[in-house]
Amino acid sequence: MHGNTLPSDWIARYASLVPALPPAGGTVLDVAAGSGRHTRLFRRLGHPVVAIDIDTGGLADLAGDPAVEILRHDLEDGSPWPFAGRHFAGVVVTNYLWRAILPDIVASVAPGGALLYETFAVGNERFGKPSNPDFLLRSGELLEAVRGAFRVVSYEDTEVTAPRPAMVQRIAAICL
């Protein structure tokens, strides 16, 4: 799933859950944005996007877009969540897990906004990397992260074959 320039099928399928208008505001936060495949998807859909990653080189061509805010930031260095008190119409995370900030990610979704999250799950070690349990979601972990605060539209904890064999967990949920 790494190195792919096409948006995740999961994210593309549920992108319409992200409200374009207030009260949620329409802005999407792309966490660990990488090459910006989801930043580009949401820009094509008309959303302003905040893209954050430790390496923003893959986003350089978007620097001139006034509706794209690019933030170079190490999410894993123990510094405070850079979006404390800020809320987004959509928060998108793919192929990334840093448990210390999972509550912050969830809390960044505005009421009525959508959380679209897809990453590797326990069992992926049999397919290769990531294999470290620190980077693999435990069974039901995304459901627990949103319990009581979101309406789950769709959730999967499954084996996929494309873009490569992997165990993934993914959720599309609306903040209450």
Furnish the topology, listing elements before pairings.
Elements: H1 9-14, E1 28-31, H2 37-44, E2 49-53, E3 68-72, E4 88-94, H3 102-107, E5 109-120, H4 141-146, E6 150-160, E7 166-175
Parallel strand pairs: 1-2, 1-4, 2-3, 4-5
Antiparallel strand pairs: 5-7, 6-7
Spans of at least 5 consecutive residues whose pLDDT stays below 50 are: none
Helical percentage: 10-25%
Biggest sheet statistics: 7 strands, mixed
Helix/strand structural class: alpha/beta
Structural description of this entry:
Helices cover 15% and strands 31% of the residues. It has 176 residues and is an alpha/beta fold. It has one domain (9-175): 3-Layer(aba) Sandwich (Rossmann fold), CATH 3.40.50. It has a seven-stranded mixed sheet with strand order 3-2-1-4-5-7-6. Strand 6 and strand 7 (166-175) form a beta hairpin. The longest helix is centred in the N-terminal third of the chain and has 8 residues, at 37-44. The N and C termini lie far apart (31 Å). The model has no long low-confidence stretch (mean pLDDT 94).
Give a quick summary of the entry.
By secondary structure, the protein is α/β, with parallel strands linked by helices. It is 15% helix and 31% strand. It has a single domain (9-175), classed as Rossmann fold.
Keyword list:
single chain; 4 helices; globular; 176 residues; alpha/beta; seven-stranded mixed β-sheet; Rossmann fold
